[in-house]
Each structure stands twice: as C-alpha cells, then as structure tokens.
Amino acid sequence: MAHQVHWTMEVYDEFLRKACLTPEEKDVIRTRVICGWSIQKQAQELGMSVSKVNAITKRLKSKYDEVQKRSNILKPRNKSIKDTYIA
Prior knowledge:
Blueprint: H1 9-19, H2 23-34, H3 39-46, H4 50-68, H5 81-84
Helix pairs in contact: 2-4, 3-4
C-alpha cells in the first residue's frame, strides 16, 4: 500500500480522519507510511506475526478504497494484479 498511494501528510491525515481505524491499523499504517518500516520490522516492533501485518494491510487497502470514494483529497490506489484477482 505504501507504493500504491502517493502519501503526503494531507492524504495520511484525511485517511485517518475518515477511515475509523483500529489502534492496530493505525500502528501499521503509521509505521509503514511515515516510518518506512518493512513488514518484518513492523511485525517485530509491533509484536505481531508477519501474516497479521499482511492481514491488517489487506483491511487497510479495502478501507482506503471505500473512503477514497467519499473524499476529494484521496486519489485512487494504483492496484496491482494481486489486488484484483478473485479466487
């Protein structure tokens, strides 16, 4: 997600205001976007497994897509093929 959105402080703040994030989601988005931590470092520092960080990131992508529809500031994500694949 860090590479799919051009994150500025304005975009970050707008997403936080509108997305109703859990504390864990806020930690993951902050450490990824603001701090630039890798998934492994997030897992280690936040006391989560890598799979939990990935699951939270997946939820954040869905929330971003929903919030983006109602925001003048948030731009659509550059979606990868993996995001559009339906099993």
